[in-house]
Structure formats: C-alpha cells, structure tokens
Amino acid sequence: MSLLSIKDLKVSLPVDKERRVVLRGIDLELEAGESVAIVGESGSGKSMTARAIARLLPRRAVVSGSILFDGRQVLDLKDAALRRFQAAEMAMIFQDPRVHLNPVRTIGDFLVEGLVNTRGSSKKAAEHKVIELLDEVGIPDGTRRLRQYPHELSGGLLQRVMIAAALASEPRLLLADEPSTALDVSTQSDVMAIIDDLCKSRGMALMFITHDLELAAAICDRTAVMYAGQIVEVQGSTDLVEHPRHPYSAGLLGAKPNVSRRVQRLNAIPGRPRAAFEVQNGCAFSDRCRFASEECIASEPTLKHEPGGAVRCFRADDLILNATEGAVL
Amino acid sequence: MTSSASIVEVSGLQKRFGNHVAVDDVTFTVPEGGSVGIVGESGSGKTTIARMLVGLEVPTAGTIRVGGRDRMPHASVAERRRRARELQIVFQDPYSTLDPRQTVDSCLDEVLRLHRPELNRKGRLSRMNDLADMVGFDSRQRRALPRRLSGGQRQRVAIARALAVEPSAIILDESVSALDLSIQAQILNLLAEIRSETSIAYILISHDLAVIRQLTDTCVVMQHGRVLEVGETGAVLDNPQSEYTKLLRSCVPGPGWHPTRLRNIFPGGS
C-alpha cells in the first residue's frame, strides 16, 4: 500500500461570488520514502495539491475525490485526529519562512513549543533535541541561535530553521512548496542538499513543488508536470528531462535558458499559462501546442498509463519530443 | 575602451550606508548597443549600482558618465528629464511602478508627451502603435488597466514605456526573474529582438546565470559590493577565475547535477 494515494482530487474555491475550479482531478501515488516533484507554472495547481493534502485549503473550498494517507482518508479527518496528522505525520515548508514565523518570538520559542505541545517533552529535553536538529540542518551554534529573533537571521538560515521544525515531529511525509525559490543560488543548493540528505537518511517521503524541471530531477525519483489543474505527465525524473512525452513538458525544457550555451532564440511557448477555470472543451494546452490536431481541440485527453509513467496527450505516440529543441516531430 | 564608443562609464563607484559599504570601487563600461550583465547574490550591491545609475541614490565616491557627461547629483528638472532620455530602468515587479488607474495606452501617451514634445497627437499615436507592436499588445490589451494584465504583460508595458523614451540604454533589474518560464522565454526573445533592431544597450542585473548567458556579451561578477571578475560572458561562465564565480556556476542545476551542502565548502557555515 502506498503511503499517499490521491484519486480524482478536485478542488474549487469561491472567488467573487462564483466558484473557481483550481484542481480538475489529480491522481498520484507516493510510496514511503519515495520522492516526487510536482512541476508547473503559476496557476497550474501545484501548491493547491500540497495544501489539499495538508488540509490547509481555505474554509470555503469544495473538495472531492480521495486522499489516503497510510490507508486513512485525510479528507475525513476532524479535530484531534486532524491536528495529530498535521502535527506529527506530515510537515510542510514554504517559499517564504518569514510569513510563518512570529517576528516577536525567538527561534527557540518557535522550535521548542512544537515539541512540548505535540510530544509532551519537557522544555529542557526539547531544547536539547532542537539544538541537535539545528546541527543536522547545518546550524552548528544552536544554543546562540535559539535566543535570536527571525529578523536577525538570513533567509537561508530561516529556511533551515523551518526544516528543523518540520523534522522535529519525525513526520513520514514532507511537503516542500518552492522551499529554495526565494533564496540565493548557492543557498538554494545548500537547502536542497539538506532536504535531500535528511529525507534519504530518515526514510521520509518528499513531495517537492517547484517550477524548475532540472532541480526536480536532481532531487526526486519521479516528476509530475501539472498544467491548468491537472497532471499532464508523470515519469522518472531523469527520463522526463531527457525524453519528455508531453509537448508542454518539452516546451518548458526548451524555454529555459541554458547556462552553458547561448541560443539564437529560446523556444518560447506562445501565449500564457491557462488557469484551470479558463479551460473549455478539449486539451487545456491545445491553444499553445504546435502539435494540436482537431481531436485535441474537440475533446479532452485522459491521463494514459504507460510503462514508467503516464501522459495526458492524444498525440504522445506520434511525437518524438526533444528536450533541448523544445519539440520536434 | 574610448569614451566615444561607451554609453555608460562607471569608475571607482562607492556607496556607504553609515558604516556599511554597499558598493566599493566598482568600475565598468557599457559600449553603445552593448549588453553588460551584473551578477551577484543578495547584498552584492548590484541593485544599489542600478539605483545610483538612475539617480535614486547619490554615490559616496566615484563617477558615473552617461553619453560622455558626468552625472552630478542634485540636477535641475530639465537636466533630470534629459537624463531620463539616456537611461531607463525596468524593475522586477512592474505592478508597483504602473499607475493602477492608467491604461497601457494612456501610460505610453504620457511618457511620449513628456519626453517627445515634438510629436503631435498623430505622431504619438503612430509611435504608440509601433511600441505596442514591438511588445505584442493588441487593441483590447492597450485599453486595459494594469490589474487586468498578467505578470508577463505588465512587464511588457514596463519595457514599452522604457522604449518610448528611446533611451540609449535600459537597466533591467531582475526584470525577468519573477516570470513563469514560458513567459520569461518570450520576454528574453523580445529583449534580444529589440536590441538587434534598435541598437539599444542593456545593463542586465540578475542572479540567474542562464539569463545572463542568454542576453549579455560582457558580465561583471560581484560579491559584498566588490567586483570579483569581469569578462566576456561565455568565457566567465565556462572558465570562471574567482572561487566565488566557480561556486555560483556549480550551483546551477543541470544534467547530472546534485546539490551540495555549503558546510563542506565554507567550514562553520554562514
């Protein structure tokens, strides 16, 4: 049995008195200790997927489908059971740690409180554990850091504090929503290495949300690409970067400037990313796709399972897509 | 490099905030129609340089020459307006620099009236048509308010507004960093096209080495306010000389790349 099993997850949110669809049916499995990346542009629904799993959606969100965590229905959890799931079985880290830290309380208060509340540890034992955790995430002088306030720490250090907080409850699933996007390149590499190391050494499953396919490939076993509230392709991360199956995945790879060579023109995808609620009939990507046929405009493809992954494209078997050129027939 | 061929010359530039030296002894030149990248992480001083170039900060020491003329602080209104015609800037977040109640067309019209007083109504309209074509706006988008536009479209407005002035150079301060990848590629292509058509010069400030590679000829690598390395962009990125540039280069994800913990590189951590 998978640690996490998502089936036909649909979410809509109230916006200006109407309902807006943000997820149009997500299917995804995650084994214990496995890592999966969710890659997409803004509005694709990648963060909403993570928030739905963590039960952090706005109060008036309408959710349907199923999210099983270790066989239990996450969508039905209430009160104490929900709090236990959120506090001890999963943890989530976000792009901007400052939003999630109380600026008038010390790092020590923040880290120790979590342990005292969820594990019933004594304050002294909790402090001891927290200093160990800080060392594990690359903050060697924990005793001093515990007395500091968030504004005294750099973004990279704060993100490490958030990772330490996430680890404190020894969760089995870590949801990391663009944890390194706001950081400097060298700090990004450091923070991702810490997350990667810790997930592997602790056998923790990781769902890593990012817009960067190559970063995803460096960290995760599998990658799922999302577009307009749906998964359009899942594959082993390296295979996806080398042999994308969906024209959108190939488009993303081709659109990215390369640090080792300059090209005459980048293979930009025309138009702008569609939001889930804007999708009419047909494939959500068809209006930007070079390969769209009449079938693609008339009806919507399903996520078709194939050896090693799944792809949502009528033309997947006709196309040989090339990562560096964007897409070729 | 002789002054006749350079549009921007920065020499010995320094900026102190109290005891903190944000920019220290920075020297570089931007040739006419050239493209210079300034690379660095947060706190490297790259944005402070941009702000000094456009007159939003006063340098503590050093000189800035644009179009062969020194930029002394405390200029008159007429002088500031003249300077705006030489050097324009596009920021990372265009939304905060666009008037929320002004349509795209009205924004461009205002800039043209201010900086191109020789144009009559018809002349302005024709110039607005050209600008809208250049950045790919249709008539409906031209009548739209900023909040109705996407992030990529707002950045196009900011670029069109900068181009309206017909400056000799545009400073792009992390102008494509916040954009989605598919949109970022469109804007990078647009910027490359504009440069080949108009012989405008770019000063591109970015932390993203791939963007620097794609759009610049020369690059300046900065750390803690100082220049560590200057050279042809391809050479600097393929064969970095300073340890810091090597570190930055090694942190860019690509095939076969794995993230590394900094503790191994800098004992003791940050």
Describe the fold and architecture.
The complex is a heterodimer of chains A (329) and B (270). Chain A has a single domain (4-104, 149-311), classed as P-loop containing nucleotide triphosphate hydrolases (Rossmann fold), CATH 3.40.50.300. Helices cover 33% and strands 22% of the residues of chain A. Chain A contains 11 helices and 12 strands. Chain A has helices at 46-53, 79-89, 107-119, 123-136, 142-146, 155-168, 185-202, 213-219, 237-242, 247-255, 294-298, and strands at residues 4-15, 18-30, 35-39, 62-69, 72-73, 90-93, 173-177, 205-210, 222-227, 230-236, 304-306, 309-311. Chain A has an 8-stranded mixed sheet, with helices on both faces. The two termini of chain A are 39 Å apart. The model of chain A has no long low-confidence stretch (mean pLDDT 92). Chain B is α/β, with parallel strands linked by helices. Chain B has a domain at 3-92 and 169-264: P-loop containing nucleotide triphosphate hydrolases (Rossmann fold, 3-Layer(aba) Sandwich). Helices cover 38% and strands 24% of the residues of chain B. Chain B contains 10 helices and 10 strands. Chain B has helices at 46-53, 77-86, 104-115, 121-135, 139-142, 151-164, 181-198, 209-215, 233-238, 243-250, and strands at residues 6-17, 20-31, 35-39, 61-66, 69-70, 87-90, 169-173, 201-206, 218-223, 226-232. Chain B has a 6-stranded mixed sheet with strand order 6-7-8-3-9-10, with helices on both faces. The N and C termini of chain B lie far apart (39 Å). The model of chain B is unreliable at 264-270 (pLDDT under 50). The interface between A and B is large, with 50 and 46 residues.
